[in-house]
Amino acid sequence: MSTEIKTQVVVLGAGPAGYSAAFRCADLGLETVIVERYNTLGGVCLNVGCIPSKALLHVAKVIEEAKALAEHGIVFGEPKTDIDKIRTWKEKVITQLTGGLAGMAKGRKVKVVNGLGKFTGANTLEVEGENGKNRDQLRQRDHRGGFSSDPITVYSA
User: Fold this and answer.
1) C-beta of residue 112 within 8 angstroms of C-beta of residue 38
2) For every residue of 11-37, which 3-state class applies, written as one string?
3) CATH code at position 91
4) Phi and psi (nearest 5°) for 154?
5) How far is residue 21's CA from residue 32's CA, in Å, rounded to a whole number?
6) Cβ–Cβ under 8 Å, residues 3 and 136
7) pLDDT, tens digit (0-9, with 9 covering 90-100), for 48-97
8) Residue 157 located in a structural domain
9) Is residue 130 very low, low, confident or very high in pLDDT (cuts 50, 70, 90)?
10) Can you give the pTM of this predicted structure?
11) Which domain holds residue 138?
């Protein structure tokens, strides 16, 4: 199924650069669409990079701080870790933050289209959904690419 979406601005990528650009465009009154290959906003940093690793580092830091209190007369027993509960907590942190971004996009009326974007003309972008399904044609006045931690090739017809 193919859909044509007309908009003023298309932003490729929903990482920090992409969603910031999209939200700013929307705040300025421009009709804005974000094209994101993953199901959640936030990019690598929020979904699988910086934020998840910092959540896990926080747990390790708290354990070390508890051990260090022994020097001041406060002694705790050895911690018992439940890795499944820690992973669940980490995923909850990610879900809260990505959900917040989704809410901000919705509040600004920024449309999110999931899939891989490919330029097919100066102002036309084709978005291919998962397994080649749901091809969307976006026609825009302007386009911006978010900067990703993964290198990508921008194709144009």
Assistant:
1) no
2) EECCCHHHHHHHHHHHHCCCCEEEEEC
3) 3.50.50.60
4) -95, 120
5) 10
6) yes
7) 999 999 999 999 999 999 999 999 999 999 999 999 999 999 999 999 99
8) no
9) confident
10) 0.77
11) 2-145
